[in-house]
Amino acid sequence: MKIRTVIVEDSRLARNELKELLKQHDEIELIGEAENVDIGYELIQKENPDLLLLDINMPEKDGFELLEMLDQVPITIFTTAFDEYAIKSFEYNALDYLLKPVNQKRFTMALDKVRVKLSKNQGEDHKTKKLSESSQIFIKDGEACWLVKIGDISHFEIVGNYTRVFFEDKKPLLYKSLNQVEEKLPENSFFRANRQQIVNTNFIENVVPWFNGKLKLHMKNGEEIEVSRRQSYIFKDRMSL
């Protein structure tokens, strides 16, 4: 199994050093490298790699900001000259944290973790554009960070140009439009109730008739969501035997 890998690192020397380390591992396929976050983002969106080797300190935007921009985050190993970011890196669900200069033994240990992680994920389709209920998304709102399973989210709601995400007792903002979010959601469990909200049908407790042919959804978390008339017809058809 080839491990499709991307390097995002502003230093040409550091990129070359990583490429020399990668040459010792035949299963690694380096599919691209980037010298800054914006180029890295475009590369990851296009190639959907298995593994990301990511520097933290880069000009304009840092490695943490890159992870916040991504819908689906590859397995990530941070490579940095600074040890003060170690704790923060694991808040971003990094698999490992390597201090420069990286030696071959330590690098091999990190790749062993990658192999174990990928073997556990076998059977899931990581190349599909759609997320599954077991997929995880990273959300950062202010200083708080979460890694949330899609299936644990009760609903999404428009807030201006952004989207509020409801899970447990949390309501952070996701810096994407509701339409962007909808494109990624599994269609079998998420439903567009109206222009402002998408609901997880697994969180619906009961459905009651409402005015003008509309429906009202009572959610398990206590929220009430009104389904537009057009979407009410679609909802009834979808949920009928």
TrEMBL record:
Residues 137-241 form the HTH LytTR-type domain. Gene3D superfamilies: 3.40.50.2300, LytTr DNA-binding domain. InterPro entries: CheY-like_superfamily, LytR-like, LytTR_DNA-bd_dom, Sig_transdc_resp-reg_receiver. The keyword Phosphoprotein applies. It comes from the Bacteria. Residues 4-115 form the Response regulatory domain. Keywords: Phosphoprotein. The keyword Ribosomal protein does not apply. The modification 4-aspartylphosphate is found at residue 55. Coiled coil: none annotated. GO terms for molecular function: DNA binding; phosphorelay response regulator activity. SUPFAM superfamilies: CheY-like. Pfam families: LytTR, Response_reg. PANTHER family: STAGE 0 SPORULATION PROTEIN A HOMOLOG, TRANSCRIPTIONAL REGULATOR-RELATED. This is Transcriptional regulator.
